[in-house]
Design a protein that fits this description.
This is BAH domain-containing protein. The chain is an all-beta fold. The protein contains no helices and five strands.
């Protein structure tokens, strides 16, 4: 995957999770290089119902394919990208 040093984009991607956990979904805002020339990106995270503040009694009411956009953003290494989300 190519990236630009300081270009702004909005793209949704699947990102690697720990073994046995479903991969994460994030919206990409920026690709950049660290001072050590490592490729990184700034992401805003989506959460599944089980990761949100929905109690267990009501979790069955939420479609398993539904995700919720959070306000959480952070920087991540480029090599944790699994693939592009199409929707």
């Amino acid at each position: 995957m190519k990236y630009c040093k300081q270009g702004i984009i909005i793209q949704r991607l699947w990102l690697m999770a720990e073994d046995g956990s479903p991969d994460y979904i994030a919206r990409i805002f920026e690709f950049f290089e660290t001072v050590d020339r490592e490729p990184y990106f700034k992401a805003q995270w989506f959460y599944r119902a089980e990761d949100a503040v929905i109690n267990e009694e009501n979790a069955h009411l939420i479609d398993k394919g539904r995700v919720f956009l959070s306000d959480i953003q952070d920087d991540n290494p480029l090599n944790c990208i699994v693939f592009k989300v199409v929707w």
